[in-house]
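Minutes, structural biology subgroup

Action item carried over from last meeting: produce the structure token record for Peptidase S1 domain-containing protein (Meganyctiphanes norvegica). EB confirmed the sequence was re-checked against the source entry. Recorded below for completeness.
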Amino acid sequence: QSHQTSDMSQLCAGSIINDLYILTAGHCTFKNTCQIPYVPQDLTVTVADHNIHSLNKGLIGITQSFTVKEIIRHENYCKSGKTIDNDIALLKLAKRMDLMNLKEVGMICLPDNPVSEYDHAYATAVEQKLTSDEEDKLFTSELNGVELIKFPNCALYPFPSHITENMFCAVYKTDTRDTCGGDSGGPLYIIENDSRYIQIGIVSFGPPGSKCAGLGVYTDIYKFLSWIREKSQDGTCG
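Output recorded by EB:
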């Protein structure tokens, strides 16, 4: 889990794919969708933190922040009319993470199989939520039991953009929670053999006015494997 922050205000989530790159959503790299792009100096990546206000209050030697050297957006993001297709980006860090000694975090695996093979499987998403205490601290937790839905069924929902083959839908089955605005860029993942965490989606968007109403649209990582590997090949996995 990573947070992308600007002036210590939380913008989006992301995931570690190697020691040099954070995978996130393309729209997280703009101040306004497709209008004002962030530059690397605007962003800070914070890892190993379940409370974004705790960086200077504890977890010494655990929580770490990294400056961003380069923002790599998909070349076709913001070029599809009314859709937010190709909603994917990579943040290249200015220095490598020491993943061998940073035990509290780890890399997530990329998928070997298309999302269709997980149809109606249950995945897990990461959510950010405010506590009710006086500081309104933002904590990370997990949404278990997110059911994947076939691509054609996505078009039945009133989303603000057209669904494309680069997206898939998921719905939280046990209540009306879903990933929300602050969760954008975060991972949707499957756990294999109780130990292998495989990211299959990136939190992209939901229906207008949903207020986390139990369903969402995710960027299909499998469709972008070649792009991810090409752009992040100078990173290492140890």
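Discussion: The chain has two domains: 2-107+226-231, 115-222.
Next step: EB to file the record with the rest of the batch.
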